[in-house]
Specification:
single chain; 165 residues; mainly alpha; 7 helices; globular
């Protein structure tokens, strides 16, 4: 099996598992009446132990390599906190509404990120804009329009910020 075929298979499986995750979470949170904190704790512990075990079994020397640098440890901690906050907000949304609403809200994350970048008057990089465009699967013409609009808004926010200072 070549790498391209494996990539397509993993992509299809990823979409399948992402979609079933929402439904499974809704079942556990509504039918089994788990609290979001219990659900997140259980899933994080199970996945951490499983992935850590797989890493130790397949690449024992590389498992702790990233933890050798103190800066990496801080970045991992910060990333973990952000992932935890994302999980909490997602599963609380599932608990008090449903999986479909949570999935729609999760799909708006790129818009929120771009909005925060623009509000902070931070110019998004070309790769950030391209990732945003690819994520939303816009046509080429719409991607150009979006890029132009984002650049104009970033320029306007930058001028407003400089004028305020």
């Amino acid at each position: 099996m070549n790498i391209r075929t494996l990539g397509v298979i993993c992509g299809v499986l990823s979409g399948f598992f992402w979609g079933t995750m929402d439904i499974a979470a809704q079942y556990l949170l509504h039918t089994v009446r788990m609290a979001p904190a219990q659900f997140i704790s259980l899933t994080m512990v199970v996945t951490t132990v499983a992935l850590f075990g797989i890493s130790l079994a397949t690449r024992p020397k590389e498992t702790f390599l990233a933890a050798a640098d103190k800066q990496n440890v801080f970045q991992f901690f910060l990333f973990g906190v952000l992932v935890l906050l994302t999980q909490v907000s997602f599963y609380v949304c599932v608990k008090y509404s449903n999986a479909e609403t949570a999935a729609v809200i999760a799909a708006t994350r790129p818009f929120c990120i771009m909005g925060l970048l623009l509000f902070a008057a931070v110019m998004p990089t070309a790769s950030q804009i391209l990732c945003f465009s690819a994520y939303r699967r816009l046509s080429d013409d719409d991607q150009r329009k979006l890029l132009d609009a984002v650049l104009r808004m970033a320029d306007a926010f930058g001028r407003l910020r400089r004028a305020a200072l």
